[in-house]
Amino acid sequence: MIGVELDIKVTDKAVGQIRKLMAVEGKESAGLRVGVKSGGCSGLSYTMEFVDDPLANDHVLEFDGVKLFIDVFSAMYLSGSELDFSDGLNGSGFNWSNPNAQRTCGCGQSFSA
User: Fold this and answer.
1) What are the structural domain ranges in the chain?
2) Residue 57, Cβ neighbours under 10 Å: how many?
3) What does DSSP say about strands 44-51 and 31-38: parallel, antiparallel, or unpaired?
4) pTM for this structure?
5) Pick the CATH number of 9-103 from 3.10.129.10, 2.40.50.840, 3.30.70.1060, 2.60.300.12
6) Which of 1, 3, 29, 62 is the most buried (most CB within 10 A)?
7) More reliable by pLDDT, 104 or 61
């Protein structure tokens, strides 16, 4: 999208895991749509899915060859955030560090802004 600056970071570990998942699902040429939707125990929850093409108004960001597609609604909630991947003893998964979240739930998958 033109004219709007979107500051999102993706760690090397997250990029590596996204690539692994793309290979497993046969989606090497796809992009990862990340976003926010209403729901979850805190009001908003994060979404992620592989898609072939961005929508007309999507922000398109690229991290070491991995494309992220972010819709304009989600962009205002995700700007300034960092996506990481954890595979520790307490479980594995993608984690958002989001300065726009005023409150998060215990599972870390939903927040309120």
Assistant:
1) 9-103
2) 12
3) antiparallel
4) 0.82
5) 2.60.300.12
6) 1
7) 61
